[in-house]
């Protein structure tokens, strides 16, 4: 099969198109023929060795954890799916090696759900990691109906899905973004504010009493701004600043969760969750996709088509 791989830890320039054997399919797994693979910052951070202290990696290393595709065949005791099923998932295993930047990937059934019928392959591939991150973070701060929720980096891959999930849960959402993305946030149901100096004051103009909960999807001081706007520190969560726990908030790391992913499928098929695909590039252009991701200006998601 064709895949994008690294021979050692490296960067975008080290990515190569290679021929590799078809992956083995362990018990409880299915073989998925990949239609599209989502690109996430963790992909290039993993490739640079950023997760080496906490996760083993094997080489050649195929990056990628997001997938949308068709079940090709099933392993032992994987009766949840059958050949021909359209699925998507956050295919993170206990070690990194056989990722989704490939024509085929073996995926534990615990990482998958049925693909939303309302989304095309590219859109579906943009959901799993970002959508599960957003939903898990919202749950950690118990955000729900009647709450006012502040979302930092609301126009990005995680933030744009977080806005829609929060709105679907009945929350009022205030989202930070550059002015060029304000109309985009309004289309998702959020009230936009410009990030940067004076952010707390701008949020208070919209919510004079502060906000009920805040989600940090960007880092760079967003936690401290959030803490100044909430009544309880335990209603602040960050995916970017681990020290948030020392300040009474939550540090969130996404997990594969088939039930949560199925919930996102329901939202998508009900028209409550849409995916803005900023760039859809061929698999062979993975290096370009990484450079776009590293620039940090992407609205919505970047995906690779296979």
Task: Walk me through this protein's architecture.
- The chain is an alpha/beta fold.
- It has two domains: 2-127 and 275-305, Quinone Oxidoreductase, Chain A, domain 1 (Alpha-Beta Complex), CATH 3.90.180; 134-251, Rossmann fold, CATH 3.40.50.
- It has nine helices and 17 strands.
- The protein has helices spanning 41-47, 121-125, 128-140, 157-168, 182-188, 199-206, 222-227, 258-269, 286-295; strands at residues 2-5, 16-19, 29-39, 57-62, 66-74, 86-90, 96-98, 104-108, 112-114, 148-152, 172-177, 191-194, 213-216, 236-238, 250-251, 277-282, 301-305.
- The strands form four sheets. Strands 3, 5, 6, 8, 9, 16 and 17 form a seven-stranded mixed sheet that branches. It has a six-stranded parallel sheet with strand order 12-11-10-13-14-15, sandwiched between helices. Strands 1-2 form a two-stranded antiparallel ribbon.
- Strand 11, helix 5 (182-188) and strand 12 form a beta-alpha-beta unit.
- Helix 3 packs across helix 4 (157-168).
- The protein is globular.
- 49% of the residues are buried.
- The mean pLDDT is 97.
Give a quick summary of the entry:
With 306 residues, the protein is an alpha/beta fold.
- Computed over alpha carbons, the radius of gyration is 19 Å
Number of strands: 17
Number of domain modules: 2
Reading the helices and strands in chain order gives EEEHEEEEEEHHEHEHEHEHEEHEHE
Q: Characterize the quaternary organization of these chains.
A: single chain
Give the low-confidence spans. none
The helical percent reads 25-40%
Q: Helix/strand-derived class? A: alpha/beta
